[in-house]
């Protein structure tokens, strides 16, 4: 049966020029390269330059994704930016991206689901495109996370970095039930506000009128991440009537190598199918999945027609997974 299916037709990503190694961090807080590598797999992270804002990072990734898709700003009628670190309280960072790209039609708004933002954004854009409300969308994950870190807190400041990633989506006629159907096949997103205090920022517009800093109960987040992500993955596979063995590439949220390994082990995914880029950019929150996806497409690992599984978990708690054939 023919229906509208959302295809991913281009990807792009961007990391700011400035790099901060584990060794650099050991000059700022009491930590070491060996501790950070052993507990997280992280080696370096990128830090946005002074004056470089989230919409700058998002715009650069979007331009690269448009180039890859062979499209221009004139083709775009929807922009979603997943971010926890917006340029300003309002307007949405997506509005600045729209202006910077020179897009003049459609809608642009932000998605706030912290590290799960890209999965939530993809699900939102997919739903809007499948309804026929828009034709071609940019979904971008972009963060200047370094600006909400307490650089005296070694438990958090070593874990995060800045960056952006983007995908171009287009609604096309197709048959989703066909065995080799391309496009977004299933998604599953969830929130549990009862766990808000396990990963949060202690500031905000209406509470303190300050930006605040990240706080996290690392071990508890770790435990729930493996559990929630695994159940979201099983749900998207059930929806699409596929199994773990059908997946060509697993592109998880790049939070921590130990979480990536834990989820892959629990689900029985061979490590040769896992795309991991966390060592070179740390946890870039909403940007991490499109960054890893773009990396593996550009280096030739991910090929057209392959089945991709993405997943994330973040503050809120929020979590989710998506399944698509590229
Ligand atoms: O998108 C979701 C985002 N969240 C995450 O990805 C985080 C999930 N959690 C984790 O990845 C891990 O819990 C961490 C990497 C954050 C921490 O690893 P852990 O094995 O759970 O360590 P811990 O928090 O239990 O701390 C162990 C020790 C403590 O010392 P004591 O009390 O045993 O003496 C910490 O003070 O490690 C110490 N520690 C550090 N030492 C050196 C904490 N941070 C550091 C550090 N350098 N940067």
Unreliable runs, pLDDT <50, ≥5 residues?
A: none
Query: What is the helix/strand order?
Result: EEHHEHEHEHEHEEEEHEHHHEE
Distance between the termini: 20 Å
Instruction: Give the count of structural domains.
Output: 2
Name of the CATH architecture of the largest domain: 3-Layer(aba) Sandwich
Describe the structure.
The protein has ten helices and 13 strands. The strands form four sheets. A five-stranded mixed sheet has the order 1-7-6-4-5, with helices on both faces. A four-stranded mixed sheet has the order 8-13-12-11, sandwiched between helices. Strands 2-3 form a two-stranded antiparallel ribbon. The chain is of the alpha/beta class. It binds oxa(dethia)-CoA. Oxa(dethia)-CoA (UT7) binds at residues 31, 35-36, 39-40, 115, 154-155, 158, 216, 218-219, 221-222, 225, 253, 255-256, 259, 283, 313-314. Residues 31, 35-36, 39-40, 115, 154-155, 158, 216, 218-219, 221-222, 225, 253, 255-256, 259, 283, 313-314 line the site of oxa(dethia)-CoA.
Which characteristics define this entry?
single chain; 326 residues; Peroxisomal Thiolase, Chain A, domain 1; 2 domains; 5-stranded mixed sheet; 4-stranded mixed sheet; globular; binds oxa(dethia)-CoA
Question: How are the SSEs ordered, and which strands pair?
Answer:
Blueprint: E1 3-14, E2 18-21, H1 22-26, H2 33-40, E3 44-47, H3 54-69, E4 78-82, H4 93-101, E5 107-111, H5 117-130, E6 136-143, H6 154-157, E7 163-174, E8 183-191, E9 199-201, E10 214-216, H7 218-240, E11 249-252, H8 257-267, H9 278-281, H10 288-298, E12 307-314, E13 318-325
Parallel strand pairs: 4-5, 4-6, 11-12
Antiparallel strand pairs: 1-7, 2-3, 6-7, 8-13, 9-10, 12-13
